Amino acid sequence: MTPDRIELWTVILVLGAGTFLIRFSFLGLVGNRPLPEWLLRHLRYTAVGVMPGLVAPLVLWPPATGGVPDAARLVAAAIAVLAGVLTRSGLWAVICGAAALYLTPVLLGLPG
Amino acid sequence: MAPSSRSPAESSAAAPPPAAARRAFRRGLINAAPFSLVIIPFALLFGVVATEAGLTLFETMSFSVLVIAGASQFTALQLMADQAPVLIVLATSLAVNLRMAMYSVALTPHLGAAPLWQRALISYVLVDQTFATAIAEYDRRPGAPLAEKVAYFAGAVAPICPLWYGATFAGAALGTAIPAGFALDFAVPITFLAMIAPALRTLPHLAAAFVSVVGALALVWVPYSGGLLVAAVAAMATGAQVELWLERRRA
């Protein structure tokens, strides 16, 4: 893609300003008032609510294969999640996932 | 006032001597240093992926300098590649960063008394890694003087944010040199899964991730990539409800 420049800069500037305001919210403006419990309870699950959903279609229907499910990518995703859960380390998850991505076609004897 | 008569103990009661602040800075730097192993590849990857997506070096750097939040930067890039409208791109990528409101809340009791310009700077560099490093220290030594807490935070920033900028730059410069057959398209999904997986050790997190995946797949047909936003809200509500349910069962 070659993104539309006005759109791209709108995203960069508004995302930058919005992210700063989120970070600054309590430290800078609201001060020491506690957040309501129900809000904190939802905030805890923002990252885990967005990111798996963003990735899932890319794993099942990779754009690089024209949307056809691909063994190497499915195995790599599963290995990355498993390694991350077991080692509690994002770094090991990346290393194991990347290794699986490149080794699976070799092990299955498929053209890489 | 006779400066010569003041003992070191008296002056340290008013403001910590610079030596203590320097030590705090160094401790922060050392404790945050291991995170550079995560920051460097992630920023390199952003630089590569952004240039491959058609962003110029200046645009890529602006992204990393103005936002400094990798997950939301990748999210925005992916949704723009999917031709999602600007409002959806912004709502979804800002949602990824909402967790930082929690960080802001948690730091307020420790840093809320700092001058406004320091709080603004700290907010700018408040990322997952600096927060994790700082809050661990503040929990260990809640009574430390404010100036030491600020110095510690500055120390934790030192091995994180400059590397974030530098590695983005290196990635953007390298980007065009990497061959296309390298399955690089899949580096972003792998990295995202790697960021989330270590958190999938509690039932509420697992349930939220499950709803997010199932919801996003079931709502793929929704125009303008709006399905992900709906799935994310449902996933957050699920996590919160499962947490409540577990608490009630324990009580």
Detailed description of the structure:
The complex is a heterodimer of chains A (112) and B (251). Chain A has 112 residues and is mostly helical. Chain A has five helices and no strands. With 251 residues, chain B is mainly α. Chain B folds into two domains: 18-197, no CATH class; 200-251. Chain B is 75% helix and 0% strand. Chain B has helices at residues 8-14, 18-32, 36-52, 57-67, 70-81, 86-97, 99-111, 116-124, 128-140, 146-157, 161-175, 187-196, 203-218, 226-250. In chain B, helix 3 runs parallel beside helix 5 (70-81) and helix 4 packs antiparallel against helix 11. Chain B is globular, with a radius of gyration of 22 Å. Residues 1-13 of chain B have low confidence and may be disordered. At the A-B interface, helix 1, helix 2, helix 3, helix 4 and helix 5 of A face helix 3, helix 4, helix 5, helix 6 and helix 7 of B.
How many structural domains in the coordinates of chain B?
A: 2
Distance between the termini of chain A: 25 Å
Compute the average pLDDT of chain B: 87
* Alpha plus pi helix count of chain B: 14
Q: Largest sheet of chain A, if any?
A: none
Counting DSSP H or I runs of 4 or more residues, the number of helices of chain A is 5
Order of helices and strands of chain A: HHHHH
